[in-house]
């Protein structure tokens, strides 16, 4: 398991200790020097050490004598995803994530992660999973395994791969098992909190209870979806179109085996020979401006479709993001079986 703290070294440490840490980091060999308050002072690479030794420093010197004092970094909650893309394209791989006081909160590894989206995520995991009984008699549906790990873990890992590390999980039925499984997420370089529903709050009502989102954008997703969605493209599409809310939609083609005629007053105006009509259904994944979440009534039953309808009626900008990658809603036994077969061919 990748641990960002392996990249940290305390100011005043001997360069010998730094060399040992750099050696263990291998292809990710960069250290970030911090003070006792965990604030970033500088960075250190093998190249910095070599240059120091050429300039008559020795292995008895401390890391502070070798460091580069102006490393690249990002401030959590105060950056744009375009900055991450620019760093990625500039071949920067290891980037510290700081708070406003320059304390290191995380270290982004673009060799492992695709990006670092400025998004909080809420995973809805409180359902009964009734259609999958008896599998869900003693295990909540999100913890049923697809191949080697639970459905919800596939989702969490996918979100983390796109740099979403502030997570809330809404739990109810057998929710303590989910809480025991993930705990606070620290061992995964995540921050996980739990929304405990004492009664059903619909498909998005639980989001109203969260008051400490870090970012201006919130992704809400069902926990029982298996998907290879490109969350960065989803986010960039949302920003480009200036949306208030974007819904992942699943295309369904309906093929008509006959010519379809358009008529008016029994007159044929036009016809199409064996047309195909494409309709889009709700995929259960939403990206929403944080300010829009104020429309969700507190602690009340409220569905995502209610929020969509409210946006439509108020002339808010609700957009569709047609799904181009793999998506499967694991609701029925046949879906569960399909997921077991499909997972062997998916690349996450």
Mind summarizing the main beta sheet? 7 strands, mixed
Distance between the termini: 17 Å
Give the structural class: alpha/beta
Oligomer: single chain
Query: Largest beta sheet: what is the strand line-up?
Result: 11-10-7-12-17-14-18
Shape: elongated
Question: Helical segment tally?
Answer: 8
Write down the Rg: 25 Å
Strand content: 25-35%
Whole-number average pLDDT?
Answer: 94
The count of β-strands is: 19
Helices and strands in order:
Blueprint: E1 8-10, H1 15-25, E2 31-34, E3 40-44, H2 46-54, E4 74-75, H3 81-89, E5 94-98, E6 104-109, E7 120-125, E8 145-146, E9 149-150, H4 151-161, E10 166-171, H5 175-182, E11 191-196, E12 217-222, E13 225-227, H6 231-240, E14 245-255, E15 260-264, E16 267-272, E17 276-289, H7 304-313, E18 318-322, E19 327-329, H8 333-342
Structural commentary:
With 348 residues, the chain is α/β, with parallel strands linked by helices. The protein contains 8 helices and 19 strands. The protein has helices spanning 15-25, 46-54, 81-89, 151-161, 175-182, 231-240, 304-313, 333-342, and strands at residues 8-10, 31-34, 40-44, 74-75, 94-98, 104-109, 120-125, 145-146, 149-150, 166-171, 191-196, 217-222, 225-227, 245-255, 260-264, 267-272, 276-289, 318-322, 327-329. β8 (145-146) and β9 form a beta hairpin. The longest helix is centred in the first third of the chain and has 11 residues, at 15-25. The protein is elongated. The two termini are 17 Å apart.
């Amino acid at each position: 398991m990748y641990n960002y703290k392996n990249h940290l070294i305390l100011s005043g440490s001997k360069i010998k200790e730094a060399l040992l840490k750099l050696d263990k980091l291998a292809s990710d060999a960069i250290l970030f020097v911090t003070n006792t308050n965990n604030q970033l002072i500088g960075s250190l690479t093998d190249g910095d050490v070599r240059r120091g030794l050429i300039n008559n420093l020795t292995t008895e010197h401390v890391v502070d004598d070798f460091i580069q004092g102006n490393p690249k970094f990002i401030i959590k909650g105060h950056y744009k995803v375009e900055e991450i893309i620019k760093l990625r394209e500039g071949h920067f791989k290891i980037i510290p994530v700081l708070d406003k006081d320059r304390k290191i909160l995380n270290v982004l590894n673009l060799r492992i992660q695709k990006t670092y989206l400025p998004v909080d995520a809420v995973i809805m995991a409180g359902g009964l999973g009734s259609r999958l009984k008896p599998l869900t008699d003693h295990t909540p549906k999100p913890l049923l395994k697809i191949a080697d790990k639970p459905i919800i873990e596939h989702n969490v890992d996918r979100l983390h791969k796109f740099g979403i590390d502030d997570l809330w999980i809404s739990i109810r039925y057998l929710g303590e098992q989910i809480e025991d499984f993930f705990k606070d997420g620290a061992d995964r370089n995540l921050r996980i909190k739990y929304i405990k529903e004492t009664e059903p709050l619909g498909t998005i009502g639980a989001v109203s209870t969260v008051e400490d989102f870090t970012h201006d954008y919130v992704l809400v997703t069902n926990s029982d979806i298996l998907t290879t969605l490109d969350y960065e493209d989803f986010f960039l599409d949302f920003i480009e179109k200036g949306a208030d809310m974007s819904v992942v939609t699943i295309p369904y083609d309906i093929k008509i085996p006959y010519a379809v005629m358009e008529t008016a007053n029994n007159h044929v105006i036009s016809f199409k020979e064996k047309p195909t009509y494409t309709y889009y259904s709700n995929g259960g994944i939403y990206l929403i401006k944080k300010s829009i979440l104020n429309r969700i009534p507190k602690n009340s039953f409220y569905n995502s479709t209610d929020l969509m309808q409210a946006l439509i009626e108020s002339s808010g900008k609700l957009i569709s993001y047609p799904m181009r990658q793999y998506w499967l809603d694991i609701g029925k036994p046949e879906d569960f079986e399909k997921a077991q077969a499909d997972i062997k061919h998916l690349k996450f």
